[in-house]
Amino acid sequence: MKATVYVTIKQNVLDPQGTAVQGALHSMGFDEVGKVRIGKYLELQLDTADRGEAETRLKAMCEKLLANTVIEDYRFELEG
Amino acid sequence: MKATVYVTIKQNVLDPQGTAVQGALHSMGFDEVGKVRIGKYLELQLDTADRGEAETRLKAMCEKLLANTVIEDYRFELEG
């Protein structure tokens, strides 16, 4: 089963990396660029066939390691 | 218009960050985790109404700054 995890910074938390990218794009002439937010994108191969259990385990992985839930949100998709 | 950009490491390129996360998950008891690949996820607000032009400009941003096309692939979605 393949899992795709998206980890994003919460809306009310500053994203200095996004601000830096926005500044770089402006300096390159891409003036139409407004707010930029940067997150992580993870693809995991899971050796399990039970979708319900996979969801529970994946939630635990996100809470414990993949996302810092104080400042980040996460969501995931399962396929296969 | 809102753009979402996904930057992923090409399939035949090593992903040490993914390997480290895989090792960490295994050491935490998540033994079902196979290959892990880590990429970037960007959300950009674009101040333009022309979808065609937005696509062209976004492609240029990816080629020039957002992705290192030697080792990374990118794809994007536009909405609004």
How would you characterize the overall build of this protein?
- Two copies of one chain form a homodimer.
- Chain A has 80 residues and is an alpha+beta fold.
- Chain A has one domain: Phosphoribosylformylglycinamidine synthase subunit PurS (Mth169, Chain: A), CATH 3.30.1280.
- Chain A is 35% helix and 38% strand.
- Chain A has helices at 16-27, 51-66, and strands at 2-9, 33-46, 72-79.
- A three-stranded antiparallel sheet of chain A has the order 2-1-3.
- The longest helix of chain A has 16 residues, at 51-66.
- The A-B interface holds A 6-8, 18, 21, 24-25, 28, 30, 32-48, 54, 57, 60-61, 64-66 and B 6-8, 18, 21, 24-25, 28, 30, 32-48, 54, 57, 60-61, 64-66.
- Chains A, B: One of its GO terms (cellular component) is cytoplasm.
- Chains A, B: It is an enzyme of class 6 (ligase).
- Chains A, B: One of its GO terms (biological process) is 'de novo' IMP biosynthetic process.
- Chains A, B: This is Phosphoribosylformylglycinamidine synthase subunit PurS.
